[in-house]
């Protein structure tokens, strides 16, 4: 093909006629396959030609460079990469042409495109640097030192597009790089070049984002002051590059916060100066504030210690927040449009929200509470609006400091519920809703008397439909954290107001909010909603029918369907079943009327959750509707997001508004369409709900969906999807098991185990890792004995060992944080949040080990013993928390191997004895629990060991502070341990009884029993409470004479100990044990009551209310 023909082909690629363009695309594609060298050679020649004065060849030059980059380096994966298929001669020619073009090209935009080509060339080399292109660095340095400004700009453009140009030699060139950038940032005399400085800013930011190495921050610290000065000069000159420069600084902040540290105060003051200047463009002020906020989020400790930071920046935020106009459309709108997040008011509000979350309440709250009160009584409504809005925005960040001031806050804002301006009433409702969410359930319990009447006042005001609606929205937040008792007090009034909002004359958004609020109120009210069911359900069904199949009312249909499902869940199957069937038939009609979905729609996704709720209520009666639900769930659960690669410099704002998220990686901008990922997570959650509620009835669908669900365990793009997939699997396998489909169950298990173990091993999120462990635990419970083979057991142990190693590394990082210069009280709070997450994972690990021991016993021993070196390090490392967890894991050996475990317990027996007297309540608790476990399961092999420990265990119980909040669980486990020693050693033989008495220096075994009975009941550790009272019943039934010391006078103490658990209501969660205790008390009172007045003596330790509770249970029909 001749060059002229090729130019015609390129013109055809830009033709508006689809047929011509498609034909040209096919021809071009074939040309790249058949003649890659000629294609790239010709493209290079075309884009390197000088621009004609008339501009007639500009489009060809532009398209040529774009096609060269896209085809040569496989941008967007449209074709195979050509660069690796061309000859060295072609590659050398292209490189020469490219450098010549950079040197001679006068059009800056064209030069930038060629710089992008250079970036791809460098990236495509095996070393990801300029080492494969010897001419490049000398060329760039030559341009940097050229007196020609265009040459220097060209060098900086290469630098901007290709920050990795130095490869691993960054340190070697650090001085040269710093000098180049510094020279370009400084204003030139006598004729400074703002364009050059702007390019230097871009190059500096690009380079620093790429080289995120703390040791290099010092080398480039000298650039900070010139950067600040450049920004100030750009602002004073109203230069076009000021916003771009600030944006680049904002992008740099989270990547390289260390770069800012040495001049943090100076940078902050410059940004504050820009924000406070009303002559500066709004967008520039916003970006300056964004930089302050971003740096605060990256280095909160430094900003907490920065003098007057909050007192300087907060008033600026409030100045922006009061810049709000009374737009008439706000009052009259029939649709709720998205807030304008670029307005001064929204920017200010978001800034104080984020700053408060970063510096936390101790630093932010004093300034907040000095500014807001005067605003709440200001004559101008904008100030009242901003003041109450600020309380909403900062509630999360100020946390406990704001909670301590809720009395004052609510008294201050309560008058705003009847404020003359509707937007202030709207803001009041918004703030109450936020406080209800941030401080639930205490907020609802303590302040319902203030909050509910105030919200009802706003919701009943006919002068502002929008404020009324927002008050209804605030009730969603309030009801979400309110007890049924609180809701019951106001239920009739709230529902009466909501029923007024169901008027069809209102705009759709009002009806949508009304049904959403009714749904949440019904959920909180539970069965109390039944009295209102007959009033609301016909109205809701009418709304559902009238909004079905109409695009304008689609959201109303969704909310109403969801509301009906939540009302049905609240009132139960008996009342709801008939209407549920009718509503599901409406759903079926809608699904049948729609074309088959290859990609689940948002409407369908929302409806799936409601269907799951309805199915949970209907039970087996829902099965006929499952065929209309399952296909959509499968489609949604199997969603894979679209992925694209675009130019790193491309503006992706429009795509982000359409549900795309972009990440810059290795010079590329990778886009992921995440808008459907929520639907995926919802579908997986819904599958789990159906499996859990429908049990065996769901088994066919479980088998059908299994492959889709378990594949999501390694779904990279969304944590929620991985979490809900893991949650769904145990009930899915259980449904197959309950249906007695053993062959199917075995096949599913065999396929799942290796995938689940792989997912656990590679999971990057600590919290999801923990949930995966819980899933494995639940699955082992489903599958039963010996469900894991040796290879799987070895893999589990290997994964846990690796986690312990990584945990140790994270603990060391936390210790380093505690000794860093930024450490303070707020930093400690953040560190403890991380430790809490680790604790949760360790609990899941402990439960997993317990499940494996319970189902595999000796088969697990050798695998478990491979962890002994790890446990030894944890036990002897001096860290009380590590010792506690190691002991927790090791105690299981005794429970599940019984007396045979003695020979394997040498690693921890002595340390367990020492741990009984530990200053750490958590370590003390597990050690006394371990002593009790030795007595209960260890047999005579552990008898001497338990007796040796018994005095220390008793000391724990008798300590003066044994019943305080920190120690109570250790104390109750110690009491339980004594009970186990009494039963399993003392009751084993006369010699055992004597040995127990000697260990405690008691005069008799009965004295030991009497002491132990006096320590009952256990009121905090519910699990141990059930076990202890079962032990007590066992001992009374085994040998009552020993328990009462051979005298009927001892019976009241036994009865009192038994009845105390009933009186304190600690056995409510264990009906079987409670019934056993009540029956035994009833028997003892009947047998001995007339002779020793058992109940009269025993009940002296109880309050009148507690006596009534026990008597009511005794009077009830005996349980079998």
From TrEMBL:
UniProt superkingdom: Eukaryota
Keyword annotations: Cytoplasm, Nucleus, Protein transport, Repeat, Transport
Keyword Nucleus among record annotations: yes
Primary site of residence: cytoplasm
Entry GO terms, CC: cytoplasm; nucleus
Record GO biological process: protein import into nucleus
Keyword Protein transport in annotation: yes
Domain IPO4/5-like TPR repeats: 106-269
Localization: Cytoplasm; Nucleus
Matching Pfam families: Importin_rep_4, Importin_rep_6, TPR_IPO5
TM annotation in the entry: none
Entries under PANTHER family matching the protein: IMPORTIN BETA (PTHR10527)
Name of protein: IPO4/5-like TPR repeats domain-containing protein
Species this chain originates from: Fonticula alba (Slime mold)
